[in-house]
Amino acid sequence: MPSLAPRSLRIGVTIGLREANESLWNNGIKQNAVFLTEALKHCPSVQSVCLVNTTEIAITSELPWDLNRWPTKSFEDAKDHLDILIELGGQISADQTDDIKSRGTRLISYCCTVEYILAMESVLFGRPLWGSNLFINKRYDAVWMIPQVADISKSYFSTLRRCEASVVPFVWDPVFVQSRSASFKHNGEYRPRGVKGRRLSIMEPNYDVVKYCFYPTLIAEEAYRLRPDDIEIMHVTNADHLAHNSKEFVALMLQLDIVQNSKAVFLGRYETPLFLAEMTDVVISHQWGNPLNYFYFDVCWQGYPLVHNAEQCADLGYFYQGNDATLGAQALIKAFDEHDADWQTYLHKQRQILSRYMPGNADITAQYDALLTAIMAQAIV
Predict the structure, then answer these.
(1) Could you read off the pLDDT of 66-117 as tens digits, one per residue?
(2) Residue 64 CB: number of other CB atoms within 10 A?
(3) Contact 165, 111 (CB under 8 A)
(4) Whether 307 contacts 335, CB under 8 Å
(5) Does the predicted TM-score (pTM) go above 0.90?
(6) In the chain, which end has fewer C-beta atoms inside a 10 angstrom radius, N or C?
(7) Which of 127, 164, 247, 259 is nearest to 202 (CA)?
(8) Helix or strand (DSSP H, E) at 166
């Protein structure tokens, strides 16, 4: 396949702002869009990349990212100057699609959520998602999906979007966690406290079955039964609504010694960098069908021991297999016993591993450049 002319492509990546100063920490979608723009800048075929807002929210200096580094435009301001529009965090309409297609712009659907699971839960459990207003574009030139959602959602994406979904590299950058942590002691990085009792943090969103706090609490419980003096407290964030409103959740938690012995606290929502810096010695996590995510990377970049079961990044942190709380407790106890003695080596190793996901990585750059070349060689749908 012939290469594109050097630095010829103008690319837009969509976001869907709801507020003029919308936080980067309320979900990973905006971070994903920013990281993708940064990765695409390294491609030899790319001239420029901008973020394209698809809502009516005005673009102002209130946005919590550098508008010089990551230019952000409204759809109207961007649409006449794009060769490719990547629909990631905001959707364009049928009329807007007709508009850009008439100008020769290719349209890519970039799929980075467990959308099939969200749709399933919406249907089965009455959780409103799109109601009767569902619009699925029929004119995508390509459908890209990140690797951790492919197993469950590939056919969902391909059939509904009428275009075979392809796996693309997952991209992450420490720029936001570093920026947010810059004012913290030691830049928010892990340091041993020199005490026996550890502060455990469980920070699952508790929004769906993919990332839910119960297995991490089972892991903490198993470790507590074996080594109670090694645990000072277990913090469970994003769980105050469960502790107040779910009788089933409360009934389950009350079966655990770590709860009965007042070693557990159920809290609201916190920003990851702040909670790590102020409240955390070890993070325990569990996922089901999403074996890569930014939370893990933020935790490990900052040097905190992460006990997790994400098989697509098993060389990060302290890995345990599957849904085995006993293995998870063994990994947690290993972190108790070994981490502080070699925390600097751990920090260096985590950052070496994470470099394979970062913008500018040679493999990521080559793969995205090949994908861009392929889509520009296609006839417009």
Answers:
(1) 899 999 999 999 999 999 999 999 999 999 999 999 999 999 999 999 999 9
(2) 13
(3) yes
(4) yes
(5) yes
(6) N
(7) 259
(8) strand 165-167
